[in-house]
């Protein structure tokens, strides 16, 4: 994906998205290294996994905010969107800490997990709000539509899995086998968008949605 973005000369425009993918590569290498040296059941791997997962979720959250900025760039509200994103992230972190701190023995092991879980739900809501805003626009870059829709599917899947983990832990263990597959779909979808969707191509999302409904 990063190579495709550089080739299409959109790396800087979608810098946060590319940063997220580069971090995914580094984190995957770090997890493999930790497993090889400490084992998959070690505390070191457990802490490394959950805290790097929280880091990736935070960067993915800001990737979504960068798409907000791209959609509303003509309104020159990028500064306010970034400030709102930081405030929302801080509020989500505080809420997570307040919940986890009720059990002092869980705070180190579950804070990162709970933060990732809450951010996925926040990201899911924000993605659908962004898509609603895109539907109101007459013309939208096709590349941006592809990026937003892919992220919406990604957030929806993981938010649903976290909801299942709270309601039915046994179902969560069965669904979790699809995590690697879904984890591959997002970079593949974004790479395809950067590789195949022309920069000048534009769509009318409202007409696409209407056509899908009539079908």
List keywords for this structure.
215 residues; mainly alpha; two-stranded antiparallel sheet; 2 strands
**Rounded average pLDDT:** 82
The total beta strand count reads 2
Briefly note the structural class of the backbone. mainly alpha
Q: Classify the helix fraction into a percent range.
A: over 70%
Number of helices: 9
In percent, how much strand structure appears in the residues? under 5%
- Biggest sheet strand line-up: 1-2
Rg from C-alpha positions? 18 Å
Question: What series of H and E elements makes up the topology?
Answer: HHHHHEHHHEH
Task: Write down the overall geometry.
Answer: globular
Distance between the termini: 33 Å
- The total domain count is 1
Low-confidence region ranges: none
What does this structure look like?
The chain has 215 residues and is an all-alpha fold. It has one domain (2-6, 14-214). Helices cover 80% and strands 2% of the residues. The chain has helices at 2-7, 15-38, 43-71, 78-100, 107-135, 142-167, 169-175, 179-196, 205-214; strands at 140-141, 202-203. Helix 6 crosses helix 7 (169-175). The longest helix is centred in the first third of the chain and has 29 residues, at 43-71.
